[in-house]
Amino acid sequence: MNEYAVIPQPASIKYTEGNFKCEGLPAVFADAGLFENEVDVFNIQTEKNFDIKVCTNNPACIRLLKTETPEDEGYRMEIIADEIRISSATSVGMFRGLQVLRQIFLSHFDDGVLSIPCGVVEDRPCFPWRGLMLDCARNFFSVEFIKKLLDSLCLHHVSIFHWHLTDDQGWRLPVKKYPLLTELGCKRYDSRERSYSQHFYTEAEIREIVAYAAARHIEVVPEVDLPGHTNAALAAYPELGCTGGPYKVEERFSVFEDVLCAGNDGLFDLAQAVFETLADLFPSKYVHIGGDEVKFDRWNECPKCQKRITELELDGAPQLQSWITYRLTGLLAKYGKVAIGWDEILENTEKFPLPENAVVMSWRGSEGGNKAAELGRRVVMSPNSSGCYLDHKHIDDPEELGRKWVGTVAKAFHLTPITDEMGGDAGSLVLGGQGNLWTETVYAGKLAEYLIFPRICAISEALWTADKNRDIADFHKRLLVHRRRLDGLGLLHYTGPLE
Ligand code: TNX
C-alpha cells in the first residue's frame, strides 16, 4: 500500500522516494533512560498484535529522539529506507507517534515483511480532551475488557477514559466507610438471565486500570453520579432518600423519581467519603459528579427538603440542585479536584451560580456547551445529536444493534466542538469532546465494541485533526484500510454505510 492511511489524519504527511523494508519487526532504540515506558508499551502491543518477536539483529530499526520541539502531544516521524525516526519533546508526544507507527505496522506487514513508503509526518492535536465514556453501571465490564479497550483507544490518540461507575442499576466503586454500596448496591436481578448479578471493581483493580491507562497516556476520569441516578446507593442506604424507601437496585431503563434527599446532611457525608476514595485512587484532577436528569418530585414533597429551601431562601426545589453542585464542587476543591457535570448543572442557578472552575459536559445537543462557554465555563462537547451517543444505531435499519435513535459515523466525523454560536474567545474554553457508550441495552463487551467502532475513530479525527485536513471522502478511503487494523485487534466493528 502506498499511503499510510492512518486515523486520525495527521497535520501533515509528505511522501518521499522509496520504501522502508524489513523482514520481521524492527527493534526500537532510544537513549538510556529515555521513553522507556513508551517503548515497553509499544513492544508489548506489537508482540501481542503480531504474535511474533521483534528482530533485534535486523539492520532496519526505529530510533526515538528527544528534541526541543514539538512540545505537548506533538511528534515528527521520518521514514527512510532503513530507519524510522520519531522525535518529540515529550513522552506523550512520542507515544502518539508510536501509535501512528503501530497503525502502519497493522496495515503494512504482509507475509513477514514490513514495507512502508518513505515520508515525513508532522503532527499535533487540535483539542486536548479526546474522550470515551463507558457506562460500567448499567452493564459491568471486566478489567480485561477495559484493558483491551484502552489498547484500542490509544491507537486513535484518545486521551480520556471517562469511567461511569455508579447509576440506578449498580454501584461499582468500593467506599470503605460505606461498605453496603458494594455489598448491596451492585447486586441486581437480571431478568435476561433470570438470576442475580453482583460485580464491582476492587481497589486493586481500579489502580491496575488507572496505571494501565496512564502507561498509554490516557487519563481516567471517574464519574459518581449525584444526586440523581442513585437508586443503587439508596438500596444500600435507604436513610439517604426522602421517603426512606424501600428502594432497589433497578433493572429497568428509566429516569427514576427517587434521588438523594437534599434536606439530609448525609448526602454530603457520603460525597465526602466518595471523594476521599476517588482522590486516593485516581490521579486525574477531574471528578465527574453527574448531575443529570434529577427529578424534583420527591424534593417538592419532602419536609426536610422544604425546610432546606426555606433556610437557604431558595425559590423552589429545582434550586436545591445548584446548591448541591456548589457544595460538591467546594468539597472536591479540598482534594484539589475540579468538578465536571452534565449540562443540567447550568440550570436553576439563580441563587447558586455554577462555580467558575466547574466544567460542563454538553450532552443534550450543543446548547449547554454554548451557554457554558458564554458564561466563561470550560466545556467538553458530547452532543447526543452529533453521533457522540454510541448507544444509538449506526444507521436507520431495524436489523442494526443499538437504540432506536441514529448517530451515523458521518455525523460523528462532522462533530465540531467549537460551534458557530460561540462568539469571541469562547472557543478557547472548549477542552474537546467525547463519545459516550451508555449500556442499558449493551450487555456484552462484543456489543460494546460494535457500537464504539468505528464511531470513536471518526470522533478522534474530529478532535485531533485540523478542520482544513478533514475530508469525509478521504476518511472513508482510510477507513477501508483501518477496518483491517480493527480486525487485527480482534474488535467487532460496524462495516456498513457511513450515512
Ligand atoms: C441519558 S446522557 C442519560 C443516561 C442514559 C442515556 C441513554 C446523560 C447524562 N444521562 O443516564 O443512559 O441518556 O442514552
Give me a quick take on this structure:
By secondary structure, this protein is α/β, with parallel strands linked by helices. The protein is built from 15 helices and 22 strands. Strands 1, 2, 3, 4, 5, 6, 7 and 8 form an eight-stranded mixed β-sheet that branches. Strands 9-10-15-16-17-18-19-22 form an eight-stranded parallel β-barrel, surrounded by six helices. A two-stranded antiparallel ribbon has the order 11-12.
Layout of strands and helices, then pairs:
Elements (H helix, E strand, L loop, with lengths): L11 E12 L1 E6 L5 H15 L3 E2 L5 E6 L8 E6 L2 E6 L2 H18 E2 L2 E11 L5 E7 L7 H12 L5 E5 L1 E2 L2 E2 L8 H4 L3 E4 L4 E4 L4 H13 L3 E8 L4 H6 L29 H16 L4 E5 L6 H5 L1 H9 L6 H17 L3 E5 L16 E4 L4 H8 L3 E4 L10 E2 L9 E4 L2 H5 L16 E8 L7 H8 L2 H10 L7 H17 L11
Parallel strand pairs: 2-3, 2-4, 4-6, 9-10, 9-22, 10-15, 15-16, 16-17, 17-18, 18-19, 19-22, 20-21
Antiparallel strand pairs: 1-8, 5-6, 5-8, 7-8, 11-12, 13-14
Helix pairs in contact: 1-2, 3-5, 7-10
Bound molecules: ligand TNX.
